[in-house]
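ok, trying the design again with the full structure, not the truncated one.
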């Protein structure tokens, strides 16, 4: 019975505790990933589509590839082996697979995984 009387006080105390704030990604990390995608675009030349930089600051282009091509990129990203030094489940894994999903060929993404831009994007 005393536990039931303490329940409202425990609830009030729990509500007064400070909450954990989610850290928003720094603009530098987003800018670094956009720089990485810009480097990929330059390396791809004419094969790069307009929407490769979609979501980057100042870019209004959208990924207008057919759904079949977008799906193929997603499958390629899931099937691509991780380069040496990238641990599964880390931010580096996410950035690597996101490059491929956006349309960067897996071989080029593997090459870019050793670049300074990639390192900056994974921090």
């Amino acid at each position: 019975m005393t536990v039931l009387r303490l329940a409202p006080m425990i609830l009030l105390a729990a509500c007064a505790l400070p909450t954990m704030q989610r850290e928003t990604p720094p603009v530098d990390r987003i800018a670094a990933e956009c720089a990485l995608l810009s480097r990929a675009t330059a390396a791809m030349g004419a094969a790069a589509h307009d929407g490769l930089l979609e979501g980057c600051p100042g870019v209004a282009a959208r990924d207008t590839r057919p759904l079949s091509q977008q799906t193929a990129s997603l499958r390629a990203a899931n099937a691509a082996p991780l380069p040496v030094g990238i641990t599964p489940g880390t931010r580096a894994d996410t950035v690597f697979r996101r490059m491929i999903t956006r349309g960067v060929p897996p071989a080029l993404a593997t090459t870019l995984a050793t670049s300074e831009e990639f390192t900056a994007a994974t921090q």
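Keeping the full-length input from now on. DSSP finds six helices and no strands in the chain.
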